[in-house]
Amino acid sequence: xxxxxxxxxxxxxxxxxxxxxxxxxxxxxxxxxxxxxxxxxxxxxxxxxxxxxxxxxxxxxxxxxxxxxxxxxxxxxxxxxxxxxxxxxxxxxxxxxxxxxxxxxxxxxxxxxxxxxxxxxxxxxxxxxxxxxxxxxxxxxxxxxxxxxxxxxxxxxxxxxxxxxxxxxxxxxxxxxxxxxxxxxxxxxxxxxxxxxxxxxxxxxxxxxxxxxxxxxxxxxxxxxxxxxxxxxxxxxxxxxxxxxxxxxxxxxxx
Length: 255
Hints:
Low-confidence stretches: none
Number of strands: 22
Radius of gyration: 19 Å
CATH class of the largest domain: Alpha Beta
Largest sheet: 6 strands, antiparallel, barrel
């Protein structure tokens, strides 16, 4: 296999070729990739969307041709805006999460290879829409924190920001430290707009956390769960514990 696509709701992307290896991210339904290496049933892949790399189990994906891979690269993307179940060609229900990609979507239908599926749901086209970033972020509110996660059933801080931005037409890198290299630096919180990103570092100065700035000095971010907290020049302030939980490093306007 040289090229593939995910045909399950979500699958783990791991550091090593093992079921017990750490999950660093997930591949969601409809996301395609290039295969860089094969080790038994394991594939070392590079995701087309953000270039992220890791190992996946070949039993959880299907092969596509280079022609279809190239076509997907040049075709408008559409994403689910709600959790749905749809019937595959065997009439078996498959759950699909918010943010799943629907390849070649048109008139309530999409294709995986040559198989056509019909789905009746709320769908969003991949197009720039900063005004919708905050609205999209609230779709994940109270989702539990999961290292490497990218769905409302479990998501980490940078997976959260990446998915929200992805559904509004902008490609963020996968990790917080990578995302911090994108966009324009703002000097003060007062210069930011709802939808801009705030980044936070640890005691060694390494950026380890990111969240989406809201109006009136609030922030939405994944820490334990996707939650709302206060934001000031020192960082994130949790009113439940009456303390700062994350130290502010920088603020970025992405678009």
